[in-house]
Automatic annotation (TrEMBL):
Cleaved signal peptide residues: none
UniProt xrefs under InterPro entries: AcCoA_carboxyl_beta, ClpP/crotonase-like_dom_sf, COA_CT_C, COA_CT_N, MCCB/AccD1-like
One term of GO molecular function: ligase activity
Record Gene3D superfamilies: 2-enoyl-CoA Hydratase, Chain A, domain 1
CoA carboxyltransferase N-terminal domain residues: 22-273
Protein name, as recorded: Acyl-CoA carboxylase subunit beta
Amino acid sequence: MTVLATGLDPASAEYAERRTAMLAKLAEIEAEHARATAGGGEKYTARHRGRGKLLARERIELLVDPDTPFLELSPLAAWSSDYAVGASLVTGIGTIEGVECLITANDPTVRGGASNPWTLKKALRANEIAYANRLPVISLVESGGADLPSQKEIFIPGGALFKDLTRLSAAGIPTVAVVFGNSTAGGAYVPGMSDHVIMVKERAKVFLGGPPLVKMATGEESDDESLGGAEMHARTSGLADYFALDEPDALRQARRVVARLNWRKAHPDPGPAAPPAHDEEELLGIVPGDLKAPFDPREVIARIVDGSDFDEFKPLYGPSLTTGWAALHGYPVGILANAQGVLFSEESQKAAQFIQLANQRDIPLLFLHNTTGYMVGKEYEQGGIIKHGAMMINAVSNSKVPHLSVLMGASYGAGHYGMCGRAYDPRFLFAWPSAKSAVMGPQQLAGVLSIVARASAAAKGQPYDEEADAGLRAMVEQQIESESLPMFLSGRLYDDGVIDPRDTRTVLGLCLAALHTAPVEGARGGFGIFRM
């Protein structure tokens, strides 16, 4: 075995400083997670409970297998927007009757579970994950439909939700809808387009138009139950396949539906795996508070892979990028991890070859980000950094094996792309609280704007206002800093969640287990032209 040694000293002042900084950032993230789990707040939670109903996460807890984890995705969606944190929807991956499933649950304590633009983005991301990884989809439905004041941002793109359900079904991926309350207008198509439908007695209300709309459109008088109640749909319309007496009964029946799916994973679970030889708790003290300071990514790798066993590829060539082979919870992975931050031509070529090898061997790739981007300057431009960076991005773009990304530190510029950022369709992407991502660092971006403005003034023969320049730089730096932070990026669904570094191995293990539900097959050729 090639067990990684460690040079980390948990007794050092440097380690203590880094750990303290990480814990402070974690506390901020946990406070925002608490806002998301609070839903609509005490008033609306109490009103919901007063109606004898379970909360969204309580429904999920009863649905998944006892003592199994639920990997919640995008919990900070809509952060810093005009909408509630969490976007009135809970999404994630949980195991039901031994089957990994993609679960979505409307949060009816937030504006009745109505969908706003961020709800839509979050739901579409969930469907994307389900389709790519072939995960059965379980929809726990209780929603008043579209948030009408924001309908202009929902109505037209929102049709993709129903398209997704039909495409999942057409691909042989099961879809199950459990209706606990209102499922109105467009929301009626969620059960309408699901393979299996369960409705709760005297609770579920599924109709294209409720009694007021029917009255306005046709003059017909009707009531909720006769128009769209669970019993009507079970006895008369046939939309309900199963009639549940209450919420626990509905969730029990949903578990039985999943148990009868005859669902098989493309790749069996590998079974128990050796834990890392080094303490995962120490992941808190690796990343410096100042991301300009480098850190050794092998210290991270040693604390997340099985047995800390890592076979490094080309260790002496392109040392600013660490590449190599390992296993994580028994699943083979190829790892690309930024060491010193900057990517040079050698690192780019090394990455392209490594990605091709992983595709030949059908091995998923894990990208651990800490990069300020590709190197700039006359020497490097003349040395071909553009074509070599393009080679790496080409390889990432056309790779067919599943990709996982974790933003540990910096993830700036085209380096973010070459390391499989969001636009390059990683199956899952998570960030640590220490991560930052933008087109470039705040100081660099502000400096570039200053240089351009200074040159423009000189070209016009005008004096340059140094005081205004200082104010502009400070304002730009503050803006870019705030827009680079994990909560801001996670709020826009540029990642699938901000995680505690100590949970990295567990989160990645759950993702690897989920993605192996689908076949893992690499590209055999099919890459674009590599400029040599």
